[in-house]
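Q: What would this chain look like folded?
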Amino acid sequence: MKNREAPRQRIVIVGTGFGAVMILKKIDLRLYDVIVVSPRNHFLFTPLLPSTTVGTVEFRSIIEPIRKTRRGIDYMQAEAVRVDAEEQTLLCSGVEEERSFRLRYDILIIAVGAANNTFGIPGVEEHTLFLKELVDARALRERIISCLERADLPDATDAERRRLLHFMIVGGGPTGVEFAAELHDLLDKSMKANYPALVGIPQISLFEAMPTILGAFDEDLRDYTIEHFDRQGIEVELNRTVAAVEQGRLRFDDGSVEEGGLLVWSTGYAPTPFVRDLPFAKERGRLVTDDRLRLPEQPTIYALGDCADVLGQPTPQTAQLAMQAGKYLGKSLNRLARNRSIKPFSFVDLGMLAYVGEEKALAEIPKVRLRLRGAITYLFWRSAYLTRLVSLKNKVLVLFDWMKTAVFGRDMSKF
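A: My prediction, written as structure tokens:
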């Protein structure tokens, strides 16, 4: 009598970000049945998201359908609602249609990322735009062009034009800085040809509550960015804490008020409602894991990326961390299924990159104590991001987008 093959364990992955995709690329589907649950049915290469807001890169060039990422997996478009660790089930709620269902799991992997941090400031949710998903980038692109078109109407007063073309960004981290840089490039290269009557009017302001921007970078690179922004005409205002947000208006804690046509909020991350409600140990809102990325009290549940922190080795909320953790976990689960030992996870800081406008960028590589800036670093920034894109299709599309923008400029259409 033939021995029946042992049933494969079921892995349920919650999320479609960097960590989840790296697991999918490394997991052996001969050993596991894999189900992915997420309201977003695609992977998004977030480092190039600011470029899509101004047409440097097109929206679909930086996404990859999750089903195409790895053939042989199951994907369900749904929100994860609650975990029953005793029954080993995940309660989910459909996105396209309101219906609840439960998924049984042998191994649960939580890789849901993080939410925008509003710090509880009144009016942020209602009156600002974020930059975290593709829908945010599309909304920003439409708002920028809308402000330009409204300001270009013949009956617009000078005061109205200056208000509409005051683009305000709250948050001096990499996302806020890169968006300011991309927006400056758009205005610098497109105004004369498309909106000659508005040349010289647009103003970009970057507000940061801390004494500096790009806090994770070396001081020399931070100072270089501030000086570079000053030369470009981007106004950087430090130690400015927003107390409230109204329609087209920022109120600061010192009583001052700034008005503008665009308000972008980019001040860091907070836990998602799903992670916030989980009854497991957390630190700074992130799930605490051991050095194998497991929840200490739940050995069948793993967590990684922006929503998790490794006990004893605090980790940054970056794409490179999620990628490293995803690769590690995929390989580790393969070894566990074959009854082999696994090593603890250890994050290797490969450095940070940021675009600062006018084809200049920053790079900090701590392993070799290297700090770069300027035009040569811009080429390094582009090549690094190009190699990290997850599919050949994305690499080709982004490369052609860059070439098209260099030759024909950015598309100012609104649709």
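Residues 16 and 43 are 6 Å apart (CA to CA).
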